[in-house]
Write a structure and sequence with these properties.
The complex is a heterodimer. Chain A is of the alpha/beta class. Helices cover about 50% and strands about 10% of the residues of chain A. Among the domains of chain A are: about 55-315, NagB/RpiA/CoA transferase-like (Rossmann fold), CATH 3.40.50.10420; about 420-490, no CATH class. Chain B is of the alpha/beta class. In chain B, about 50% of the residues lie in helices and about 10% in strands. Classes of the chains: A alpha/beta, B alpha/beta. Chain A: GO terms for molecular function: 4 iron, 4 sulfur cluster binding; metal ion binding.
Chain lengths: ~500, ~250
């Protein structure tokens, strides 16, 4: 079950290096009452919408099984499908670039943009470009990267980080958004209207006016892709606002940064995923805008199309026979929206662009477990299993979390720790029923010492971690084993 | 004659003996002769779920040795049953011992959580219990989403004489215990538990019932700290209660 660490891991980017572990970040986030309220309201709303539209599909389980099977087929023959994809993309007139890691991908994109002699690009919402921190790389090269998804715009103007895969500004309330627009829009282009209130329609109108001049001006658009179809050389982007469509059609040049696991074998396979993704993600039967393109079309839309295929740790994930199913992920966010840990801790506590349950398994697999934040992520779950239940491609997230916890412990074996010692002692005690029976004599003896106390309110460390907020039970005067022996006699 | 073993689970054995005692009482009342193989200790779930697979593998070996000869193994715990049925295969594979994998494949399907055994094997929902109290039921995550016990516990509870069973809002949401999660991420654990306890208190129940004493220790610990006037009780103890002898 242990992974062979074959593929290269993705670098932990400067944004996340040195971040505290999940428990510390979560503790801080738990005190942010506005965020708690926003997250509880938003995740519960979208959870309900998803449940309703999934419930009306009679063969949902068959769709899930098909989705998982298609992705597993891709992962089992990824090399073949990628070569086929490259051939078909090239045949359709798209230039294909290969990037081993984030740095290589960023270098390729920066060079392409520089080659066009422009100092700005418009961006379609994309997890892959966030993962490689493309905006930062472009900025360093003197190129402004304008996010055009409404929520990404809020995050970018607020000099903030996304906290959700689908709803990056889920942690923000509308009054905060109004303040961000009022104070920051002017520096980035057209200012917010003087009369703008925090009404959603007015906020959207301010964003529309602000973004429109960028759409009309930009010569280069940058996107990701939800799917890349190997047998046709087609890219697919699903979105809700139409801002993505603007970026995909108005600029002269379109550069798409695509993770190598995004391949689907055939055009027919897309049908399954167009049913799975919107229902799981926004809780809609279908998303409003689906853009599909196969290379440039003469005189219509971008006349130059590029695809950058990015590994950035994905082959490392692929090398783990248990963990590789994380690469089935289609970034729908259903697992975030049902996760009781995510709902309370929020996305920033996960120290990565991939928060929530999928982030807790994907990030440590992409980046490895050397950083404290990455090693803490597999433990950021109560293993309640709600994520697996809603995953449209049946990623067994609890099993993957346990698999990663095992890797974390294995990597730290030999180094002394209180936890390791406690586990070793417990293992020694349970190894012999006689030792366990003796231990129980100690338990009942301590009960007698406590003389009728019913609960314990203050234990010394590490028990204090429990009793800080919870009473602890008092040991019984007679254990079950002792009762059995008294009432049923020796058994075998 | 079928041979039925009680897997008490280490936590119940040492800390909550009332639950395995109630399980024995209940099964004997239903005419099942139950054995308690004394060589049993712990299923190893705490090791497995914290990442200590090497420490868990000897527990797997011991479990299949101790329980291998029985026709059915009954455990008053959803999560320990889940550990055996759903996690032992991965541990056996890691051990590299094909014999252990075969033994697990043979033993694991014979391990039942109490409500599964009562409803599916014995075919009863009315176990002759009487419990005149206002009760709400919390379905624990591993019984719900790992074992898929569904409404079996509720079907059993609905047949109990005198019970005033009230629905728990947001019942399927995790209480926040999560094994060592309760210690390693104590703040989030308590935040989750606070919401669970709020829902429990909203029902006006006197007792919250569940199939796992580990989750109940967390829930009860929070209720106790709040002086909520609500106590916790294992499903087995409710089902073992009769008009003559209440738990």
């Amino acid at each position: 079950m242990s992974a062979r660490h074959t593929g290269p891991v993705a670098a932990t980017t400067p944004t996340f290096i040195g971040m505290p572990k999940f428990p510390a970040l979560a503790r801080e986030a738990l005190g942010n009452t506005q965020q708690r309220r926003n997250l509880a309201f938003a995740t519960q709303t979208i959870r309900g919408k998803r449940a309703a539209v999934v419930g009306e599909v009679g063969d949902w389980e068959a769709l899930r099984l098909n989705g998982a099977a298609v992705k597993d087929e891709v992962l089992a023959h990824l090399d073949d499908y990628l070569i086929q994809l490259e051939d078909k993309l090239t045949a359709a007139g798209t230039t294909v670039h290969w990037a081993r890691d984030a740095a290589e991908a960023n270098r390729i994109v920066v060079e392409l943009v520089r080659g066009k002699g422009v100092d700005e690009v418009v961006k379609v919402k994309s997890m892959a470009t966030q993962e490689i921190e493309l905006n930062e790389a472009l900025e360093e090269a003197g190129i402004a990267a304008w996010e055009t998804d409404l929520a990404e715009l809020i995050v970018q103007l607020g000099n903030d980080r996304p906290s959700h895969i689908l709803v990056p500004a889920i942690h923000r309330g509308r009054a905060e958004i109004r303040d961000i627009f009022r104070t920051r829009m002017a520096a980035a282009g057209r200012p917010a209207p003087e009369t703008m209130t925090d009404e959603p329609a007015q906020l959207a109108e301010a964003a529309r006016l602000h973004l429109r001049e960028k759409f009309l001006r930009a010569k280069v658009g940058i996107s990701g892709a939800n799917f890349a179809i190997a047998d046709t050389g087609t890219l697919v982007v699903l979105e809700s606002e139409g801002n993505g469509r603007m970026c995909l059609t108005l600029p002269e040049t379109l550069i798409s940064v695509v993770g190598i696991e995004k391949v689907l074998p055939t055009w027919e396979d897309l049908g399954t995923f167009l049913q799975l993704l919107p229902r799981s993600s926004t809780g809609e039967r279908m998303n409003p805008y689906t853009s599909i393109w196969t290379g440039p079309a003469d005189g219509d839309g971008p006349q130059e199309t590029h695809v950058v295929l990015v590994d950035n740790g994905r082959t490392h994930v692929l090398a783990d026979p248990v963990g590789r199913q994380a690469l089935r992920c289609i970034r729908c966010s259903a697992c975030l929206n049902v996760c009781p840990v995510y709902e309370r801790a929020g996305g920033h506590a996960y120290g990565s662009v991939y928060p929530g349950p999928i982030g807790a398994v994907l990030t440590p697999q992409l980046r490895g477990i050397d950083n404290p934040i990455d090693a803490s992520l597999p433990y950021a779950s109560s293993l309640c299993g709600a994520c697996f239940e809603v995953c449209p491609v049946r990623i067994d997230i609890p099993r993957l979390l346990v698999n990663l916890r095992t890797q974390v412990v294995d990597a730290h074996r030999g180094r002394p720790s209180a936890e390791g010692l406690a586990m070793k002692s417990a293992a020694w005690m349970f190894a012999e029923p006689g030792r366990w029976a003796s231990m129980q004599k100690g338990i009942t003896a301590s009960s007698k010492l406590l003389r009728g106390k019913r609960t314990l309110q203050h234990l010394p460390w590490p028990g204090s971690v429990w009793t800080d907020a919870r009473n602890a039970p008092v040991p019984p005067r007679e254990t079950f084993r002792q009762w059995w022996q008294r009432t049923h006699g020796e058994s075998r | 004659m079928t041979r039925v073993a009680l897997f008490a689970t280490c936590f119940n054995d040492a800390m909550w003996p009332g639950t395995p005692i109630a399980t024995v009482t209940l099964l004997e009342r239903l005419g099942v002769e139950v054995d308690f193989p004394a060589a049993q200790t712990c299923c190893g779930q705490m090791f497995t779920n914290t990442g200590y697979a090497d420490e868990a593998i000897p527990r797997v070996r011991s479990f299949v040795e101790v329980f291998g000869g029985y026709d059915a193994v009954v455990a008053p715990s959803g999560s320990c049953t889940g550990s055996v049925r759903e996690q032992y295969a991965d541990l056996a594979r890691r051990s590299g011992d094909a014999g252990l994998s075969r033994a697990v494949a043979e033993v694991a399907p014979k391990v039942y959580e109490l409500s599964e055994y009562l409803v599916d094997v014995l075919g009863v929902t009315d176990v002759g219990a009487s419990f005149p109290h206002r009760v709400t039921y919390h379905p624990t995550c591993h019984s719900l989403r790992m074992l898929h016990v569904g409404d079996r516990p509720l079907r059993l509870l609905r047949e109990v004489r005198g019970i005033d069973l009230v629905e728990l809002p947001a019942a399927t949401e995790c209480c926040g215990f999560g094994g060592t999660f309760a210690m390693k991420n104590a703040d989030v654990s308590v935040a989750m538990g606070s919401d669970k306890v709020r829902h429990i208190r909203d029902t006006g129940a006197e007792i919250v019932v569940a199939g796992d004493n580990s989750c109940l220790a967390h829930i009860g610990g929070l209720l106790g700290r709040q002086r909520a006037g609500v106590r916790t009780m294992h499903l087995a103890e409710v089902l073992a209660s009769t008009a003559e002898a209440s738990a």
